[in-house]
Design goal:
The complex is a heterodimer of chains A (243) and B (287). Chain A is of the alpha/beta class. Chain A has nine helices and ten strands. Classes of the chains: A alpha/beta (243), B mainly alpha (287).
Chain lengths: 243, 287
């Protein structure tokens, strides 16, 4: 039987007064890759932002309903957790890579700094491991003090994944992680995501059939405010997924 | 837009920029031109003495220079932390209705005439300071600095708040998604990225603090001495110019105010350069 990591019940989301998600229900499997597909503008990104409460930084965005996450065998309502603690357990990677304007090393070490960790040796070890896990170490180990903004788009995205993974989150949300990248960079991200499978629960929003088919354990289609399970074999071409 | 209109607009903007720069340079040469006769014969040293007694050729303006520097610096030291704190409240911690209301209040403060601040200070602050120190009239360095800080505070808040708001959203999203608290976002992301804006705010505020006449004239006490404590009265260069300008046009003291003006000009320029250098060093350190 599948272990469930996230349970969504009667989730409603509004921008100003306009409803984006209506009475949404769904479950996401633990330590698996669940991909969410659906037409543009249906609220896939909003759903991700509802799961780690990033919607709270959007003016006039309001969420009702219940999202529960399993932490140490118990399901906890995300609204009952301190938001900063929740976001350390539920990381997020955005569509466009967003490294901070600081060195590669400082970018990866940033979440540790936020958690008050000061042991330099420990930080160094963790940064190295995170970069190795993101297949980035060989490319940047001789220029860790260079600005992260000098990296290519694909490298920046892998850096963002490494940065999100350094605190070993229980869930990682990825919003179209390959859509702004070229084919080669997208392939590396695909490999990286496959490698993360089993380490944490991955929830990926994707428009790409190839990526969805290759990495997904479960596929959920978001349409007309409902999340429906879609079998991998039934995913059709890019256009029908995207539109 | 048509290329010809675009070129015309470009020339118009260039003319405006050159005109502004030329006016500043012309003012500098104007001050030098009128000060020059007083510097003739190696008499420049007489301005850099402690004694102001024009009837006995005492043109020392060092006390006024000290008064200007101390009052402006103290005003900046008081206003800067409040300015950064208030900007953080408006742009980071309270972005809702309260933040918007606070910003409106600050915008309103910029429109209050300086003389109103002076009146309020005379009736509220000066007696309060007099009671605290239990000596003097209460018209002193501290009173002037507090009021001047209040005067420059809206400039600092609005500029810093705008600099905070200009930090790209994707950096803030990144920090949010990693679980940063608003205070951590402010310290690690917003302030380092808004550093240039903070320096610009301080440059403008310093210029206003050094150049303001009315507050110092009304509540600094106008004593011709180098203040030795916060409760001592002092006279600033601007207040000195305002007090002397009513004297005879041909008198030596009237002519000496051009030297005061020139020194004020150089003083302001040095403060701006120092703040710019501070900003430049900070940027170099961040690289």
């Amino acid at each position: 039987m599948k272990k469930i990591k996230i349970r969504i019940n009667n989730l409603n989301c509004f921008y100003k007064k306009k409803p984006v998600l209506k009475d949404l229900k769904g479950e996401m499997e633990e330590k698996a890759i669940t991909t969410i597909i659906g037409p543009s503008g249906v609220g896939k990104t909003t759903l991700l932002m509802a799961i780690n409460r990033l919607y709270e930084s959007i003016p006039d965005c309001r969420v009702e309903g219940k999202v529960e996450i399993k932490l140490n065998t118990k399901y906890i309502d995300i609204h009952k957790l301190p938001v900063t603690d929740l976001r350390k357990k539920v990381g997020m990677v955005f569509q466009v890579p967003n490294p901070l304007p600081m060195s590669i090393f400082k970018n990866i070490a940033f979440p540790l700094k936020l958690s008050g960790i000061k042991d330099k040796e420990y930080i160094k070890e963790k940064v190295e491991q995170a970069l190795k896990d993101a297949f980035l170490w060989d490319e940047v180990n001789d220029r860790l003090n260079d600005s992260a903004l000098e990296l290519s788009g694909g490298q920046q995205q892998r850096l963002c994944i490494a940065r999100a993974m350094i605190m070993q989150p229980e869930v990682l949300l990825l919003d179209e992680p390959t859509s702004s990248l070229d084919m080669e960079a997208a392939l590396k991200i695909t490999e990286l995501l496959k490698n993360l499978k089993g380490k944490c629960t991955l929830l990926v929003v994707s428009h790409y059939t190839s990526l969805t088919k290759e990495i997904s354990d479960n596929v959920l289609t978001l349409k007309d405010g409902c999340l429906k399970i879609t079998e991998n074999s039934k995913i059709v071409d890019e256009s029908s997924v995207a539109n | 837009m048509k290329p010809s209109i675009e070129k015309l607009a470009e020339k118009g903007f260039l003319f405006s920029a050159l005109f502004s720069v030329s006016i500043t340079i012309l003012i500098f040469f104007f001050m030098v031109f009128f000060s020059f006769p007083l510097f003739k014969g190696g008499d420049i040293a007489k301005f850099f003495t402690l004694e102001w007694n024009p009837y006995e050729s005492g043109f020392g303006i060092v006390p006024m220079m000290a008064g200007t520097g101390i009052i402006a610096l103290l005003a900046l030291l008081i206003a800067t932390p409040f300015g950064i704190g208030c900007s953080a409240l408006i742009s980071v911690f309270s972005t809702g209705y309260f933040g918007r209301f606070l910003r409106k209040v600050v915008e309103f403060m910029t429109g209050i005439p300086t003389v109103i601040y002076g009146f309020v200070a005379i009736f509220l602050l000066v007696p309060f300071i007099r009671e605290i120190f239990e000596k003097g009239t209460g018209m002193c360095v501290l009173s002037a600095s507090i009021m001047l800080a209040l005067l420059i505070l809206p400039t600092i808040i609005l500029f810093i708040s705008n600099a905070f708001n200009a930090v790209p959203k994707n950096y803030l999203d990144a920090a949010d998604s990693l679980g940063a608290t608003p205070a951590q976002k402010l310290v690690y992301i917003i302030i380092p990225l808004a550093w240039k804006g903070i320096i610009s705010a301080l440059v403008l505020a310093a210029g206003r603090a050094v150049g303001d006449t009315l507050i110092s004239l009304m509540i600094a006490g106008n004593a011709l001495q180098i203040p030795k404590g916060l409760s001592d009265a002092a006279r600033t260069l601007t207040a000195h110019i305002a007090l002397i300008i009513a004297s005879d046009y041909e008198s030596p003291e009237f002519k000496s105010i051009f030297v005061c003006g020139l020194i004020l000009f150089i003083f302001t320029t040095l403060i701006i350069l120092a703040l710019r250098l501070l900003g430049y060093l900070k940027i170099l350190r961040n690289r």
